[in-house]
Amino acid sequence: MNELSERPIGIFDSGAGGLTVVKAVTEELPRERIIYFGDTARVPYGIKSGDTIRRYALEDVHFLTRFEPKMIIVACNTASATALAYLAQHVEVPLVGVIEPGAVAAAGASRSGVIGVAATEATIESRAYDEALARLRPGVRVVSKACPLFVPMVEEGRVTGEVAELVAAEYLSGLSDLGADVLVLGCTHYPVLRAIVVSVVGPGLHVVDSAQETARAAARLLEQRGLARTAGEGSAAFYASDNPGRFRRLAGLFLGRLPCSVTLVEPEEFFSAAARHD
Ligand code: DGL
Question: Is 241 helix (H, G, I), strand (E, B) or coil?
């Protein structure tokens, strides 16, 4: 075991949704130490401009770099779609986004060559999935669906029942008719809606959960670089930029358990972390 492998994995999201990635990483890499930051003061990112998302994402990364992580996972589709290349220009730590792993899985799974992508407005507007899928599978047709009501619905715990079904049907019921045989859940919150999505799109559509694919991609990268932690128990520490109590309650939904504690990051602490690196 080398010293670098003992370092934590930093994971961030605009809020609590990235905990779906933490859950998948914990299952895939049970020995790793995870530091999670949720920017709950500024969520949602999915309706913000590209410039604002890039600025926020860089501040999130700078906050995490104080823990000297061996890798940072951008566990937010919106931030990955809009800011990954920008972040890579500003930090040296290896970055893993959620778009590419989801796109690889979708490109490999589709027989028809028509792939549905459900995501936030900013992710759809960035065309990040369209570009990744076209590169991985030339000639592919991407049917994009911005699903802006999904995030608030999940945050209010409306993941089953009539309202959830109606909204999911409104967004996604036409996908099979358009020839799609794969649907990418291109937003951290959507895996929580998986059951309702499957009931709407039908069992014939293969659903790709980018959280699971991202955890596998992170595991491969650690393995390739000899950075995987091979002994000892894993752990996770949680930080949020606002309302840690609400974050903790929501965590149950995304993580399947409640974190023991969530530390509030004061804005001065957070912004000064970014300022020190500029
Ligand atoms: N985390 C965002 C994503 O995966 C969803 C929530 C938001 O809009 O900030 O796209």
Answer: coil
Domain final position from 210, 233, 262:
210
Q: What is the pLDDT of residue 272?
A: 58
Give the residue from 155, 178, 182 showing the smallest Cα distance to 250: 155
> Which atom of ligand 1 is closest in space to residue 43's alpha carbon?
9
- DSSP letter at 266? P
Q: Residues 159-168: pLDDT tens digits?
A: 999 999 999 9
Same domain for 195 and 220, yes or no, is no
Please confirm, yes or no, whether 76 is among the known catalytic residues. Answer: yes
Q: Which CA distances in Å does 16 have to 53, 237, 246, 273?
A: 16, 13, 9, 21
Name which residue sits closest to atom 2 of ligand 1, judged by CA: 76
Which is the closest atom of ligand 1 to the Cα of 188?
Answer: 4
The residue with tokens 């709407």 is: 200
Q: Tell me, what's the pLDDT at 220?
A: 97
pLDDT, residue 58, reads 96
Domain boundaries, position 10: 3-97+213-275
Residue ranges for the chain with pLDDT beneath 50:
275-278
Question: What's this model's pTM, rounded to 2 decimal places?
Answer: 0.94
Pocket probe for ligand 1: among 22, 77, 121, the residue whose CB has the most ligand atoms within 8 Å is: 77
